[in-house]
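Practice problem 4.
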């Protein structure tokens, strides 16, 4: 794994089926924070700073690799379930096709 503290401040939009909006403010975007104990990094609500959970190592590794290839994103990176990503890709393709 690369240096996870480099992810601090990264904004992530959580759109997995197990994710729920912040119970205080309803925000779905979290900000990557500091590591604690065995955890790679913390996740805090982007609006009210409430602790929302911990960043899994596998996702941290993926994010570091993505950022190393494409640079720091100007907007939140969206994390979805694979089936949601596939459905969105299909929907975008259908909408992008020219009408005959």
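Answer key:
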């Amino acid at each position: 794994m690369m240096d996870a503290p480099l992810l601090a401040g990264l904004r992530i939009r959580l759109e997995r089926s197990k994710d729920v909006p912040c119970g205080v403010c309803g925000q779905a975007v979290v900000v990557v924070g500091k590591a604690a104990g065995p955890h790679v990094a913390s996740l805090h609500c982007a609006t009210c700073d409430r602790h929302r959970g911990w960043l899994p190592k596998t996702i941290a590794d993926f994010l570091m690799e993505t950022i190393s290839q494409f640079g720091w994103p100007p907007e939140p990176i969206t994390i979805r379930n694979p089936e949601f990503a596939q459905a969105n890709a299909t929907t975008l393709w259908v909408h992008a096709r020219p009408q005959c």
